[in-house]
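Dear Dr. H.,

I hope your travels went smoothly. While you were away I took the liberty of generating a structure for the chain from your last submission, since the lab meeting agenda had it listed for discussion. I wanted you to have the full record in hand beforehand rather than looking at slides cold. The sequence, exactly as received, is reproduced here:
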Amino acid sequence: AITVKPVVGQVDHLLGEIRKTVEIGDRVLVTTLTKKTAEMLSEYLVEAGVKARYLHSDIGTVERIEIIRQLRQGKFDVLVGINLLREGLDLPEVGLVAILDADKQGFLRTDWALIQTMGRAARNANGRVILFGDHVSNAMQSAIDEVNRRRAYQEKYNKEHGIKPESIVKSIQDIAQGIISHDKSAQTKLEDFDPFEVDDLTDYIIDLEEQMKEAARNLEFEKAARLRDQISALRKRIEGQ
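The corresponding predicted structure, in token form, is as follows:
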């Protein structure tokens, strides 16, 4: 299920939803737009008695694998991060994905990014998504429509074939291998951009998009095509494909 909630009171509402999710034995992923927000939210949740951790952008592969292992084992219940797309996360234990500032503009709040982030709850039969925003942006509506379309197709397929939805079961080793494979892939793509952090990449992609639009307006289609390919490559890098 996908729900949209207002920004006012979002932290208290999120806390309540986290507790309901944890009570049934599921885990929670929360994504924010800034490092400061992620850190503050993580601290608040811990002070409220929630077993939460913040996934820093500078954490190495080995430590990330250990954090994911501990999340799956239930040593903590909530993982807070900025860009959960690039972590190679495919966690069947995740029953709730919460996206803060879902209505804001930016690379991590485009329709495709929202679809991918929302998909982190698709592996769980009880999976839910909460989008927090003051209004429903075009990207949000597009993402919601697409996820609902996919769900309707899956439900129709399941009904036709007598399939009962169940949470996907994956070993911790599978998750670790996924993260390692993702890191190796990221290292071989767009090496010129390795110094960038996610926030920097976001700004850079927005700038490239403006250049692409300007080139198209000036009928410089070859230049626009090159910029389009560069943007696509950057998106795939962060998405982990």
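Two observations you may find useful: The helical segments are 10-23, 35-47, 61-73, 111-118, 138-161, 172-188, 198-217, 221-239. Residues 40 and 191 are 32 Å apart (CA to CA).

With kind regards,
E. W.
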